[in-house]
Amino acid sequence: MIDELKNKVQIQVRLTADEREEIKYLAEENNQSMNQYILDKVLSENSKDDSTQNSDSYENHSMMLAYLKDQIIEKDQQISALNMRLEESYKLINQQQQLSLLQQQPLKITEDDKERNEENDKHSKRWWQRIWS
Question: Which helix (H) or strand (E) holds 29?
Answer without folding.
Answer: helix 17-29
